[in-house]
Write a structure and sequence with these properties.
five-stranded mixed sheet; 19% strand
Length: 162
Amino acid sequence: MTHTQFVAHRERGFWAYDVALAVLLKHMIDVAEERRSDVPWLAGAASAWRVVACVSDYGLTLDPDWSAAQLQAFSEVVEEACGRVSARTSIPAQELATWRLLDDCTVLARGNEDVSTAPIVELGEAIVALSRGALPMPPGETLWFYGVPTGRSTLPCGSSER
């Protein structure tokens, strides 16, 4: 099983630690389900996010055909999810194991007793920046790597480090 998933929008992207992405996606799903009566397309997006959260072989690819209004709604979902995550400093692994995201699939903590929330919020902010075309370029021949406990770092371009 991999430890990274690629997050992409149009021609740009970065790597994300799969635990952090799964936690963020869980909160995004919660927000999307609350808003689906106002924004019906979020139900389909949330279904796809469930798969990405549970199957590390998939990455998060934002639909390049989303309208400006859809991208705005997506950003609002991510920002609300970040707000919920940031209300805590960490989440116990035992709690992650109770989140049923897809069938019997839960979020794996990869041996950590607690998952720090600060890197998850940083990941969410990077996803919003990516969706808005505002993600800074990484240095040299690298790609950003978000969601790791030590904070944003880089990986060599073309890295298949998993």
